[in-house]
Amino acid sequence: MTPFFLKLFDHVILVEGGYGDHPSDPGGKTKYGITEDVARAFGYKGDMKHLTLELAKQIYWQNYFIIAGLDRIAKLSEPIAAEMFDTGVNAGIGRAGLWLQQALNVMNQKGTLYPDIKEDRQVGPNTANTLHIYLQKRGAEAEKVMLRTLNGLQLAHYFNLCRDGMKFEDFMYGWVRTRIS
């Protein structure tokens, strides 16, 4: 685990807190932001109330950092990787990858800066290479613009969840307070 990941982990633990089982949360029982389904898929068999911080760290490292391709992104931009990590934790790692790919595709000046990439939710070498080209071609403000774009997509997602189902309204204020910066 890298020092950068450990900073991300410490932050997510502060935001996510301990055990929860909110009736409006379709994720059900969670601990440290890890849903029961994710914990079970990782091999955890115990009561969610007893999930250890160390196991949560392993799950975040493997599922939300390495498998999500954020090791590649962090080499190019730690702020973008941090934003994607936060999005992955709260809205799904596939969605974080998709939003980066969509953003890259609409900011390539109709393919003149770099070709469109496949929007497959997988942050592999091609997505990372395209981000590298985007950052080079777009210059000093590129990182800030990408962060704003990713935050905007995340906010729109939360807004639409709340508009589509009243149960999510319980979370909107907190999502904007802790997730959108």
- Give the fraction of residues assigned to helices: 55-70%
Radius of gyration: 17 Å
Distance between the termini: 26 Å
The major β-sheet equals:
3 strands, antiparallel
Give the strand tally.
Answer: 3
Count of alpha/pi helices = 9
- Order of the strands making up the biggest sheet: 1-2-3
Structural class: mainly alpha
Query: What is the residue-mean pLDDT, rounded to a whole number?
Result: 90
Model description:
The protein is mostly helical and 181 residues long. The chain has helices at residues 3-16, 36-41, 53-66, 70-76, 78-91, 93-106, 125-138, 142-164, 169-179; strands at 19-20, 30-31, 34-35. The protein has a 3-stranded antiparallel sheet with strand order 1-2-3. Strand 2 (30-31) and strand 3 (34-35) form a beta hairpin. The longest helix has 23 residues, at 142-164. The two termini are 26 Å apart. 27% of the residues are buried.
Would you spell out the secondary-structure blueprint of this structure?
Elements: H1 3-16, E1 19-20, E2 30-31, E3 34-35, H2 36-41, H3 53-66, H4 70-76, H5 78-91, H6 93-106, H7 125-138, H8 142-164, H9 169-179
Antiparallel strand pairs: 1-2, 2-3
Helix pairs in contact: 4-5, 5-6, 5-8, 6-8, 8-9
